[in-house]
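Input sequence (309 aa), recorded before submission:
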Amino acid sequence: MTLQQLQYVVALHTHKHFVKAAESCFVTQPTLTLQLKKLEEEISAVLFDRSRQPLEATPVGELFVSKAKRILWEVDELKKSVNDDKDQMDGSFKVGIIPTLAPNLLALFISDFIGSHPKTKLIIEELQSERIIELINNKELDLGILSAPLNEPKIREIPLFNEPFLVFSDKDNEMLLNKTITQQQLRSDGLWILKKGHCFRNQTLNICDFDLSEQHKNVTMEGASIDTLKKLIREVNGYTLIPELSYDKRIDSENVIPFEDPKPVRSICLAVHKHFTKERLINELQKSILAHVPDSFEKNTKIRKVKWR
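Predicted structure, token format:
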């Protein structure tokens, strides 16, 4: 038994004629007749007396039509409630964002977003990627902003932008003699990285693609933040990779060198549980973020709307 079959039965009861009922449902008369026959066989009951003109429902058919109308009404109400929820932005929403994004990305867009949506309250927390994924899966977090892909069956990813990597080194590093650098020119000696748990650590190691055991430094440290690594590199020596949003032109210009094309990048996305229905909130956040990240970034400007069927 399907909702479509229920619609056909109600249309037959209303129009009392197979052709008119089929036209009202935008199907052919043979299609409607076949579906009615399948339904009657399934429930082992005749719903309409075909010998009468105009068509009349049998006593069982009258009862069936009454309940079918109630079911179709409930389905319509459910659709309306979901559609209303999709457009709703009022209230508080919990957002998790990875530490290597939080201080720089939030500063770009959050003031404008809150100013445009004063009835929306965002409760934001810096969290590691694994924790964000765990909380979204448990429906304890509404949205996440982190690196993609996540490859989580219960999580929907909305692509935002690709953020390029830069090399940050001490001023005396010979790498800075070049205008650009390639991944093949990176060396294991002198590399500083974030501590385990940061997805940016893994991305850095994937780009550098060498064994850390080859390092030969008097000081070895896995930093808790990109700013910590930058300060250490300025005072000691060495280099690290940084995401472009963490590049501060006022103080970093003499320490940074870009990669040659094609530049290595990390993909940033919005993440929500697949059952999260606040589509307008997702779309407005996406638009606000993309409006404030650098124009040089590759952006996903396509807004994907989820249809309720």
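Checked by second reader. Residues 54 and 195 are 79 Å apart (CA to CA).
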